[in-house]
């Protein structure tokens, strides 16, 4: 499987949204943000999608659990 664009770790995404990395993991588990699993089972996120969400172009809903 080939993935285009840079992939971000949960920690990098969390820093961009100013939330805890566990919040990003919960968002992914709930389907609020899509993620890719590495062969080792770690989550990665497409930078282009994360930037779109930050710009308000996506459907991420704040769950009031971001700290």
TrEMBL record:
Pfam families: HTH_17. Coiled coil: none annotated. SUPFAM superfamilies: Putative DNA-binding domain (SSF46955). Residues 7-54 form the HTH merR-type domain. This is HTH merR-type domain-containing protein. It comes from Fodinicola feengrottensis.
């Amino acid at each position: 499987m080939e993935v285009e664009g840079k992939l971000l770790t949960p920690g990098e995404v969390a820093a961009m949204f100013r939330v805890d990395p566990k919040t990003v993991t919960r968002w992914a588990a709930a389907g609020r943000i899509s993620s890719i699993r590495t062969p080792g089972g770690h989550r990665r996120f497409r930078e282009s999608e994360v930037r779109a969400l930050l710009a308000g172009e996506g459907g991420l809903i704040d769950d009031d659990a971001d700290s």
